[in-house]
Amino acid sequence: MTPRSLVFNSARYYSTRPQELADRLASEWERRREKPSSAPEGLGRDGTATEVVHRLMGVTGDCQICAPFERVWGTITERFPERHYHDSGLGTMNAVWAATRHLQPERAVETGVARGFTSAVILSAMAANGKGHLWSIDLPEVNLIYSGGAGAAVDPELAGRWTWMKGGS
Question: Fewer CB atoms inside 10 Å of the end CB: C or N, the chain?
Answer without folding.
Answer: N
